[in-house]
Structures are given as structure tokens and as C-alpha cells.
Amino acid sequence: MKVEENVLLNRYSTFGIGGPARYFITATTKEELSEAISFASQKSLPYHLLGKGSNSLFDDRGFRGVVIYNRIIHYKQDEALFHVGSGFSFALLGVRSAKANYSGLEFASGIPATVGGAIYMNAGANGQETKDCLVEVELVDEKGQISTKPKNELQFAYRFSSFQNQKLAIAGATFKLEPCSEASAKQSAILDYRLKTQPYGDKSCGCIFQNPPEAFAGQLIEAANLKGVSIGGAAVSKQHANFIINQAQATSADVLELIDEIQTRVKQQFGYELKSEVRNIPYD
Fold first, then answer.
1. Between the CA atoms of 190, 159, 18 and 233, what dihedral angle is there, to the nearest 10 degrees?
2. Rounded Cα distance, 192 and 115, in Å
3. CA 225, CA 238: separation in Å to the nearest integer?
4. Treating both helix axes as pointing N-terminal to C-terminal, what angle do 183-197 and 90-99 enclose, rounded to 10 degrees?
5. How does pLDDT run across 61-112, given as a tens digit for each residue?
6. Residues with catalytic annotation?
């Protein structure tokens, strides 16, 4: 197992923000993932499992632990069952399954996450969520033990999974989809709409806030006249108000301060408490 030191995390974050990781390990199999977690345990250090870095805001000082870069990217289709590694691109899974004429993950197209990240956050769009067609998840616990759990032994809710409250790393997953000749056309339409309405050319973490009940975060932020508002190098996107972009060498402090400003303004004007979707990864 190759253990690197002081690897800059801004290279592995879609925000382009983050200092060096004390230790950095790339895992390409579930066995390597187990070994990396055991390494962190032996060093008595926290670990962070990193996929596409599309939902992680790293501290400017870095991470004083072990970052495990998830490159478990196997892919196998068995008729309606799709077996994938947790490091496999969620968007690519949506494209491949749709082109194979199977429906259920068309919404994944354009979501900048790994399969593991999508399960962890129960990512969703267009009225669908990751959990809907999930069958089982392959796991590695904090002792490095590998096991498999069916979906009914896990908990999911809006942008939530029980993994957020447990020290379990996702190594792989199986999805069961439905045959559908229109899946590819639906997937393409979803992607085209996203490309037209969201700032894919900018450095961001995707949507920054969860939608509150019976409202849309982006509409509330826009109504509060916050589009284009900036703090340091971080700014609210002028294209989609629920995106914070790194427009000029933003720091993690800039982003956190802007998140707080948005939450305060929306609360004052409309009474809604916006909850951030982004995982703030502290230095310690």
C-alpha cells in the first residue's frame, strides 16, 4: 500500500479548496480500502473517504489525518442488476444504465459524485433518490472488516443515510433497475437541462443547500437578492442561486462566511432555516 504525505487536497476538490493531507492513500479494491482504514486506526488518526470531492469543503490548513482516495471503479451488469464499486462515477452509471435500456438512475446524469458519495448523501433529483433502486451495499467497518448489508437494514431520508452517523465506509453497491426503452432519451433530456441551468463551468460543490419543506433553496436565495453576492473569492452564482462558486482563489473561510450570510438573510426575510448539504471537513 502506497502512503503519500502532504498531498494538496485542492486538486481533489471540485471547489478547488484545501490544504495538504497528512497521509494520502489511493484504494482501488475493497481489500485496499480495508487496509487503508486499518492504517488510520493503527495511527489513531481520523480518516476521510474521498470520491470526486464534489461535496467536501476542506480546510485551508488541510486535514490532519488520513485521506483515502476511492478508486474502486469496477462495473458489472447482470441483466437488471448493476454491481458497481463505490468509486465508480454516479453520472456515468446513469448514462450506462440508460443506454442499456434500464430506468431508475437517469437522474444521476450530471451529478458530480461517486456511487459511494451518492449513497452516503442519498443524492436525488427529478423526484427520485439513490435509495429507490438500491439493493445492497458492501461495507468496511472501522476495524477493516468487510460485510454486506441489504437496503432494509439501512436508513434513508431526504439527503440522509445512516452512514452519516456511522463509521462505515462504502466499498460497493448493487442496484436493480427496470427495463425501459425510453431511458436513454430521458437521461439525455435531464443532462441537457442541467447544463443549461447550472454553472458546470465554475468551481463549486453543486447545490449548497437542501430544499426546505415546500420551498426551493435557490428561489429563496434569489428572492433575497443574493445572486452575485461575494465574500472574498467565494460568490453566489449568477446562473443558479443555490450554487456557491470559487471565482477568485476562495478560501474555506470565505465559503463558510458566505454560507452563514445566506442563511441569515433568508431566515430574516422569509423565516426559512437553510441547511447546508456540503460536508465541512475540519483540519482536526
1. 70
2. 21
3. 11
4. 140
5. 999 999 999 999 999 999 999 999 999 999 999 999 999 999 999 999 889 9
6. 159, 207, 277
